[in-house]
């Protein structure tokens, strides 16, 4: 009813309930009132169909909690209102559940929180006001509208607390005053296409919409013919709309600024950037012309897959997913058809992906590019935004790659036309990565970098510390990335030993403190062992002084070294042999396996009278067959010459020695001497004797008279002994130098014409000089056959020489004193030299073993090559040297030469070591070209040990030559160029 006193406050509206349709209507016939109609209960069984509040009616629901649920509509018309709760207690919660909520010129006011669940919400000049009273305990107000939300004519939904608006359809605010406000506002799920609650989605066709949402799905597969697109379906204007000014159309902006337009000297600025790159949720903007006839260009739409609560397990894209901005394809014309410029391109939209894994095939595309500007100077649209919100970021050993990207991801700006500028590129971002991971797809930081902060910026991956990185190591891949500055590393080869990546040789060196302490310790060990060996040698064989004393000019025994070949070294000969000697017949040939010794046929003239020619020729056949070598002896020598030449030399000397013994045995015992005319010689087997030089290169047969010849024949034969040929031994090589061998018989024969002291001095001096004469450097060019027939030492003229003996007493005494002093000095020098030789031997052995250790580390093949090419040559010098040092007597010089031969043969192993080292260096350079990226390293000193060993070999060779010289020639007066000085020692020779 009306109020006369308060016309604006009539009575409260009444209610009308239609029980047939279960409908409640509250109306006040357009009478203004400020008095509410209380409603204290709403039926839940059965549910009402509709509730209408209209015509200035006011409804109050003064409850702390209530639920209003109808099967149809809840409608408020014509300045009506509903108030839920009490203003003094804004803690209530109310629910409205209906198919539709329709409001026109009406108000819904809630003190507390409101939950609305409808399919459609239409508001025309209406308000929904939620007052939480500033109470933080009030729940969030939620409006869930499944299909359509439309606000028109200054309609407002507001809350001074939290407000959430959810929908799966269209949300439209049509006018300038339409608004949705909240202290914290959440709007989501308003899409024009929604695919919801489908586990596996396979797209072979086209899904197209301005806002596409795929929600609560497990996997999405876009086939090669499939497409999900929101291109050209975004805003026609929008926040980043492109400007248009007098024909200059600028591109719209979004993830990047739009390109500026330029026409007829007029520049129009491009649209601005807007939205968030870390979690974008906006449509692309467009551009519009000066009027409707000029048209428009739309931006890209929005594609959302998954949500924070329900992310996709996997997205496999083989086709196209795009939200590109629209391009302007036609220029703008005025009413008379004249071109007046072109619009700018639309900006790219948004692709927002909540997912666990992504796979982009090679032919796939993910695109939010800006549109092209129109002709006549239109600017390009800015690029859109792409964001990957990874739901599961495993770290450490549990890390798995999130994305496999072989296709194209395009977020560039559109191209401008004419003088129009290109739009800026958009953004592509990912969720912030944990430690060790970086980038959009949260991949592991590159090897050699670490990341100890959260974020996706590549600059957060910092270089690892090089302080503890060894020279031969590289940083290694770590699953899940490295999170500390001390990055793990691995040696460049498994041959190096961690943690310092040393070779076994270097590890041995640094175990003792480094190169210099190790070298000093090794030197001390070598010197100690050398002193022990030298002391032991002196105890066993005596010092150099005692050796010299026994072998001095005052003690001529059978221990004299044979290469000096003086008469004083040989036991006394029987005088009757020299008296009955007729002729010395030399074997021809160098006594090798290819050219063995042999005697020429037909007896020489000197023995022609004492032999039977036919029987002599048969003897030649027999002895030549005995002198020949078997085929296998030469084969063994050939094999040993290739594998180990010192062994081949020893084998040859051994077979030569066997051969000369065989010849001596044959002539002495087996042959019946039937070629001799003397019956006594045939009966006693004493007419012939085989001899040879100590080097086994020259052999001969001496013929003697039997004693039963006629006196005249005997005298004639003896007279034919002179002139006599003497063949030099040796071949001019290091192992067999040229020498003149004067045995007892030869000395006694020559002593008949020349004093023995003169002859011995001559032979000693000649042999001393011949030691240094090489093969092929002898004066003259004569073969052994020529020597048999033309080269003679004519001693018959020597008988005419008058040897006037000078006073020998003082000269001999001075010579002996000088010789004794020289021997003492040389003895001390020889002991020092032999100590140095021992040191060199031990140093050679240690360096050899270290070199073998190093090449064993390089490879087993290199180790075997260095050790076995040539076999035994690398390790044999040490025992050969010890054998020479611990031997006394005439064999010592020969053994020293054998040691020198082994020493020189081992150079081949050193050459092989250099070759293997070079091959190793080349292979290492090819296999590890980036070995110096992380650390400045020195090159491997693989060549150092072979070089040191080679220097040791050279120095040892010189020391050994010095030893041999002291052993073979102790009387240095033999080298005197002054004849008087040379012959002054004649009496003591």
UniProtKB/TrEMBL annotation:
Keywords noted in UniProt: Membrane, Transmembrane, Transmembrane helix
Lineage: superkingdom: Eukaryota
Pfam families on file: DUF8003 (PF26010)
Residue ranges occupied by any DUF8003 domain in the UniProt entry: 428-502
Keyword presence, Transmembrane helix: yes
Membrane is among the record's keywords: yes
Record-annotated membrane-spanning stretches: 508-533, 835-858, 864-886, 898-923, 943-964
Protein name stated in the entry: DUF8003 domain-containing protein
